């Protein structure tokens, strides 16, 4: 369903990886490992169409993602390294705002429920500026419960999370995979998922 074919990544003067190949089917996860600066975020940015590969192709349901455009993006949920939250808005407002940008209607109750599951009950109306780093990360990850997307691309989703929140994220990803979703993620932490997990290492 998601296929990377002979991908090359060049950043500045450096070639970060060459001839990278993988295939992910429904219910499968790709864990991208590598040291700092090895090209994990660069690979994820390629997979979501933000950075073109120096060579190679990325196909979704056997068509190039470049050709699919919005059709691909409608099936994609990308949680990048920067959290993309507006500091002046509350957690609730941030989620409603980001859902409106995707044209997916969401009720305030659904947002409260997602924030509650993310461990933010009672913090729904605080401005994001007043939240801790881990709480901000939880707001960003609450999108996983609201946006109905097949492919999740998650860059360091466990950063700043405590053990309990990390376990919650693992459960949410497991559920997504058992529902037939696909996930690609990076993390420097140990992570055990129940489904099929492919691991690739980028960098030398
Ligand atoms: N726009 C750019 N121009 C030049 N070099 C870049 C650019 N973006 C990233 N790089 C370089 O590419 C390399 C890989 O960066 P990337 O963010 O993909 O690494 P990473 O594996 O995700 O690292 P980390 O574990 O620290 O998050 C780094 O050396 C970085 O400086």
From TrEMBL:
Signal peptide: none
Any GO molecular function: ATP binding
BP GO annotations: cytochrome complex assembly
Transmembrane recorded as keyword: no
Claim: Magnesium is one of the keywords in the record: no
SUPFAM superfamilies: P-loop containing nucleoside triphosphate hydrolases
Protein name: Heme ABC transporter ATP-binding protein CcmA
Keywords: ATP-binding, Cell membrane, Cytochrome c-type biogenesis, Membrane, Nucleotide-binding, Translocase, Transport
